[in-house]
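Whiteboard transcription, Tuesday session. T.W. wrote the C-alpha cells on the left side:
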C-alpha cells in the first residue's frame, strides 16, 4: 500500500531511517526528481517539494496511526488509503519519464501541453496560462485574457518550481 507523507525540510534521511527501523527494511520510498541548474551548478530537487511516497505491504490504517510520530515527519495525507489507484498511476507515469539516474526527462513537462499552468513566483505570480506552441528555443503561451507570453525553453520546466519569469510581450 502506498501512502503520501509530508516530511520536514532537510530531514529526508532522518525520516527514511526512522520509517525503515519502525516498519521494516522492505519499505520503498519514491519521489520524482528533476534536475535544476542554478548559477551553473546542477542538483536534483524533489518535484513535489517535501511530499514523498512510501510503500510497504505492512501499511494499514492502524499501522499508519502508529507511525505518525516518527522523526522527520510532518504528517501522512489522510486520503492515501482511498486513492491507491491514482497514486499508483501517478508514480508509474513519473517513472515512465525517468532517465537511467531516476531524474525526470524534460519531455515529462511537455506532456501537460494541453493543461493550464500557473506561475509561482516573479512578476507574473499567480497568472494562469496555457501552452500554445513549443519550438526549439521558446514556449509560446496564452493567458486567460488572451495575452501572449514567451518562456525561454532552457528554463521551461521551472514553471513548476520557485523561479522568476518575465513577460516578453
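and on the right, the sequence the group agreed on:
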Amino acid at each position: 500500500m502506498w501512502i503520501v507523507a509530508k516530511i520536514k525540510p532537510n530531514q529526508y534521511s532522518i525520516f527514511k531511517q526512522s520509517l525503515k527501523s519502525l516498519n521494516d527494511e522492505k519499505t520503498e520510498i519514491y519521489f520524482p526528481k528533476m534536475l535544476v541548474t542554478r548559477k551553473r551548478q546542477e542538483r536534483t530537487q524533489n518535484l513535489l517539494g517535501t511530499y514523498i511516497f512510501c510503500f510497504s505491504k505492512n501499511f494499514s490504517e492502524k499501522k499508519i496511526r502508529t507511525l505518525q510520530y516518527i522523526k522527520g515527519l510532518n504528517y501522512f495525507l489522510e486520503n492515501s488509503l482511498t486513492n491507491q489507484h491514482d497514486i499508483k498511476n501517478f508514480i508509474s507515469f513519473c517513472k515512465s519519464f525517468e532517465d537511467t539516474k531516476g531524474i525526470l526527462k524534460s519531455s515529462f513537462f511537455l506532456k501537460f501541453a494541453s493543461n493550464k499552468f500557473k506561475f509561482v513566483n516573479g512578476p507574473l505570480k499567480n497568472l494562469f496560462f496555457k501552452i500554445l506552441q513549443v519550438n526549439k528555443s521558446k514556449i509560446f503561451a496564452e493567458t486567460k485574457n488572451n495575452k501572449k507570453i514567451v518562456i525561454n525553453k532552457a528554463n521551461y520546466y521551472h514553471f513548476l518550481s520557485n523561479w522568476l519569469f518575465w513577460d516578453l510581450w
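Someone added at the bottom: Strands lie at 2-7, 28-30, 33-38, 41-46, 51-55, 73-76, 116-118, 128-134, 138-143, 148-152.
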